[in-house]
Every structure is written in structure tokens, then in C-alpha cells.
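Thread: Acyltransferase, structure

OP (GT): Posting the sequence first so everyone is looking at the same thing. Length is 362 residues per the record. Can we get the C-alpha cells written out before standup tomorrow? I want them in the notebook alongside the other entries.
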Amino acid sequence: MVPPSEAEAFTKQGKSQKLTAIDLFRGLTILEVVAHHTSGIVLRYAVPDTLNYWVLEWINRTLHFAVPAFVFLSAMVLTRSLLKDFNPRRYFLRRATRGAWPYLLWSVLYIFWYVATGQRPQETLSDPAKWSFFLLNGKASYHLYFLLVALQVYLIIPLLLPLARRKLSIPVMLLLGAAVQIVIYLLNREALHIPYPASTVLWYMLPVMVGAAVGARLDEFPAWWRKYRLALLAATAATYAVYLPLALAYVRQEGVNPLLYSSASWAYTMLMALMVLGLAYSLQRFTATWRIWLSIIGTFSLQIYLIHPALLQALQTMRAPGGDPSSIALTMVGYFLVALIIPTVTALVLVDTRLSKFMFGR
């Protein structure tokens, strides 16, 4: 995704690899995912209406942009690749092995995990209706809906190639994507009535369309970022100022206008995705060890994404958060590090093995 001269090399199983800004994007975003889920678990044990609770709540809602960011990245990378060479047979076969299979396998694993840990009754395993519900809606675990959305992104991106070839500017596609997103929202409210819209690609058409636009002219993005980063930062801050109060009111089950909340959420998460991509390109020029490790973490973002929820649930059972604010903070940091390090080490150990391809599709 970047010229070889701008990519840092590292050795993986004796093979030279290149770490790019795309890996940094994945690394930053998977750190956000783990932090978001960790804060969500710890928040359940904090005392409401205390400073500690408010800080955790603020952190949790601020970090609520990972799925749109990963959807944006998927659309961007796939569009760039398909504009160069689109072989339908190879494309869909690769998507099946790297997308559909991990989703199916890890859905089954998490269904058994939830029963084994007592989070669901034993009867779940023999109920075909439950299996159908879990698999068709991405509900085997709270995080697996993203993989279901990703499968739908794989199907829709080839249909967007004619639009991507027009190479519309990012601001134009932001406006066009926002208009399409609002129309879909209204259509769902009035006619479609999809029970779990966040498990469908329709709920992420804004990041899909902007991702396609950026992917079509990715070589130009670093220059665009350098020119407009302050304007993008200001726009992101403005949308955040609107989004955060609505998000906090929503989680507190206070009255919130659904269209206003959804619109603010789409705007904030989309602009944050662009900010993270710009930050990834800015960090690319550094050669420090931390930057290389952040990129390596990014290359294993799927493995971390799939494994870390089970680890967080196990840690919660072994040692639930509690005590004074400092103890809760230390527990959260410990949860975060365990949920990040163990999947990363596991991925490193298994990389390029048959077991890795079986478990993760790569």
C-alpha cells in the first residue's frame, strides 16, 4: 500500500515482510477494540455516578468506532486491489477461505464457549432456532457481527467499482455516502424493519463508500492528509462534541432522538477512521521499535479480534474488577495487556502453519 522505501522490514518465519501504513492502521484500531471491550467490562463493576464511572463511560463511548473503521479499511483495500485486477473466481474463493470460514468456525467455538462457561443454557446446543439466530445475525458472541458485516462488504465492493473508477474526491464521497446512509435509515424505519441493522452492511454504507473512494486514489491520500489534516481534525472535534453527549445519554437509557444519535455516530466514526489512517501515514516515517511492534500487532489484528473476548470473560471470572479507583484502573490495564499479548504471541507462534490457516484463514 506504500512504496517499499516507506515500509519497514521484519522477519516472519525466516521470510522478509513489509510493514506498511495499512498495518499501522490495523494496529491502532485493534488497540482501540481491546481497550473498548476492556473498559466495557470494567464499567459494569464501577459505582454509578462516581468520577471513576464517568471516566470509564467517557473512554468507552469515545472508543466506539472500531467496526466502522475496519469496514472502511476493508472497502479501501479491496477496492484498490480489484481496480488493478478483478478475477471473480479467485476473489470470491479467497473471501470464502479468509472470511466465511473463520466466521463460521469461531461462531461455533463461541457458541460452545458460552455454554461451557454458563453464560447460556445447555439446551442452546440442541436448539436449531438458536443456531440459526446466532449464525444469521452474528450473535454467537457480541463481537462476531463484524465478521458477518465484512462478508457483506465483500459482496458489495465489486458492485461499487464503477463508482470507484470515477475517483470522486473524499469530501464529495463523504456527502454522497452520508445521503445514502440517511436514506437507508429512513427506509429501514418506514419499510424494511431489519431487526439487527448493525449486523448488516446497510448500516455502514458511509464507511464503505468513503473507503472505496480512498482506495481508488490511495496514492494521493498522504498528500491529501498533509494538506487537510487540520481541517479534518477540526471537523472530527466538532462532530465529537455533538456525538459524545448523545452517546452518553443513549447508554444511560435517557431519551435520545434516534436519527440524530445515529447521524452523529456515523459522522464521528467516519471522520475518526480517516484520522486514524492519516495518523498511520504520519507514524510510518518513524523507525522506533514501538512503531514496528504496532505494525506487527496490526498484521495479527484478526487473531486478536477473535480471541480476546474469551480472555476478557475468563479474566472477569478469575478476578472481577473491584476496590478503589486505582485498583480498578490497574485491573483494567492488566485485562488489556493479557487480552492483547496472549493472542499476539499465539498468532506469532502459529504464523504460516496449517493450524493458523485452519483457525484464522491466514
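GT: Both are above now. Quick notes for whoever picks this up: Confidence is low (pLDDT under 50) at residues 1-17. The CA atoms of residues 246 and 257 lie 9 Å apart.
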